[in-house]
């Protein structure tokens, strides 16, 4: 680790029942810095035994101090955690940059987003309540909003802080006790978050964190009969496995999966306003973003202009080590680099409109690829259909609104869509017709905005996280019908 980001916790331990402890198997896994391939540290290789202990600790917390705490007091702790995240912002950003390969500016924004989630859900903890319901004579009927109980949170490596904030933050606000399984590729900020929770006075067992391999600790959590709800963020393939495992115990699952999100640019669009969003939403976090706008659909009348402007922007993109804070860092791993290079090879028959450049500091030991913009891509080409999870965007021309909608809705995903047009009626029509969980009109937020409900349709998943509405998903309703004559 660097002096700038010293670890003030031991990453080779799991947080269970408020205590950092060695995993039952006594084994560790290496974390690697994707910017140069150097070893970062060892993390705990938790397994089913640690998950069992974590679930038991969470259950005990619900029956003890955490379960008895008022919503207002829960909110206060979350708000305190948010403040502590802000105080540690620079350290957290450095850890995320080294662990994920994310440029420092983006990592800083993620730390601030984590703080915002904690503030937002801290403030919301005591705002959601039940109703009274008019019923038959002699009755008083009301509903209680209650936590699910023990919630499992399985998160990926690409935005650890943001995803932990939105799912664990909302779950704790509603009074659940959480078991978090971060990704084995990058989990330092998940562990730092756990330490912050301890320091902020979160009662023992309310948050338990077990790092480890997906097929071991993750599968044990997904299939655990003592868990009452699972929030999973990751790939479609793993999401299906998690849903199946949880389904065997009739446990509800929220799935936040992948995407192939489009931005639609019409002839009447404000192109100057659109350009930064078209490019940035494709290359943010080196394209390893579920809501990346990897398809840019452009109407014929402005197609050449958009292509030229994007190509110029691409030629200025520089890739380098995360701590040098260029526009793009490396991919998470050499394995991910091979996957992206495989897609670039599949695009050998296509026209490359432009590519970014590697900085001199981007060594062979890092997982670097040049951001690549393909032009004139057919809507059914694999590069226009499959999630690549790298800095690759395709330009697809269209004639009219009907064709734009058909192409936009032609993938198996439906996470986010952007529409660039000055025509208000078209904005309203398309906002309804596009299959996506979020639609942005004349802007594009690649998942930004803690206040905005987020989630997918189709293979992008189901359920909604973020925003106030997420609190409904992390709680359940009990109806109380009192007969008093
Ligand atoms: N919709 C969203 O909000 C969102 C956000 C970020 C990433 N994603 C998606 O995540 C994917 C990339 O992330 P990834 O490669 O880390 O995904 P992944 O599915 O490989 O891993 C995600 C998590 O699942 C765990 N896991 C792996 N196998 C498991 C199993 N059998 N049982 C239980 N858990 C298991 C992993 O350890 C990790 O913690 C992309 O498809 C991306 O679009 C979606
Ligand atoms: C929504 N977001 C950006 C936090 C994560 C997507 O990968």
Automatic annotation (TrEMBL):
It is an enzyme of class 1 (oxidoreductase). Residues 20-480 form the Aldehyde dehydrogenase domain. It comes from the Bacteria. The active site is at 256. InterPro entries: Ald_DH/histidinol_DH (IPR016161), Ald_DH_C (IPR016163), Ald_DH_CS_GLU (IPR029510), Ald_DH_N (IPR016162), Aldehyde_DH_dom (IPR015590). Pfam families: Aldedh. SUPFAM superfamilies: ALDH-like (SSF53720). GO terms for molecular function: betaine-aldehyde dehydrogenase (NAD+) activity. The keyword NAD does not apply. Belongs to the aldehyde dehydrogenase family. This is Betaine aldehyde dehydrogenase. It comes from Phaeobacter italicus. The lineage of its organism: Bacteria, Pseudomonadati, Pseudomonadota, Alphaproteobacteria, Rhodobacterales. The gene is betB_4.
